[in-house]
Amino acid sequence: MKPTLLVLAAGMGSRYGGLKQLDGIGPNGETIMDYSIYDAIRSGFGKVVFVIRHDFEKDFKEKILSKYENHIAVDVVFQSIDKLPDGFVPNPERTKPWGTNHAVLMGSEIIREPFAVINADDFYGQDSFRVLAKALTDMEGKTGEYCMVGFRVGNTLSESGEVSRGVCHISDDGFLTTVTERHHIMRRDGGAVSFLDESGNAIVLDDNALVSMNMWGFTPDYFEYSKKAFVEFLSEHGNDLKTEFYIPSMVNELITRGAASVKVYDTTSSWFGVTYAADKPSVMANVAKLVEEGVYPNKLFDFK
Length: 304
What we know:
Blueprint: E1 4-8, H1 32-43, E2 47-52, H2 57-68, E3 73-78, H3 100-106, E4 115-119, E5 122-123, H4 126-138, E6 145-152, E7 163-170, E8 176-188, E9 192-196, E10 202-205, E11 210-218, H5 221-237, H6 247-256, E12 261-265, E13 272-273, H7 280-292
Helix pairs in contact: 1-4, 3-5
């Protein structure tokens, strides 16, 4: 069975100022998602499931899904603040989504095979999908053996402001030992990459430090672990207005208690993305260069 690609596309992108998932960056108005789906198809994925919100379902289906339907099986699941386990209701003042691992949980409704998780607004590159598709194919029938594709933090920054990344520590044999969500990452203090700790102190990171860009590979048992952990999370934080249920936190917990291992794969691909509106021109230039080099056709999805 071919692996499935789960695309996290429910975010409005508040810093960017709009539905950046629907914004064109290719020569014919292609979105970053278009390139991800193109790479997924030619890497051997068999289905794409999008996590979106109900309030832009119409636009999404008209502008996005219609392009893929003749090339790969597609489906949609919905993330909402009130989509919680029985017995829980959100704080009525909460407007912030529950986070990336809550979005992943939406896929449990229809995914029964090894699956990858990516962000809709990150450009991961062809080799990343090739590596991940092979790893997921090898994971068929297994449990508790996951994977991720890592990127170097110095190559994942925005010149326009701060970013958040999952900073990883890797064992000598290539397995993830911890991943910690770090915020306010940027070049500061003379060009050094650093994040801010809870006290606001700048902690320096090596440019080559491996980070997660939410490019994960899981088997369906991950959903069951996540469902139980989300109940525990809500029991402690269900009344909070901003606390989120992150993928790195879930993965960390599973590694710590020996319930799962995560193989880390490197890639020759370069990551880039649109975190802020000012990032768009450089992303467009990068894509144009890849088209010029023949990595991508001038117009995506003009293939049999």
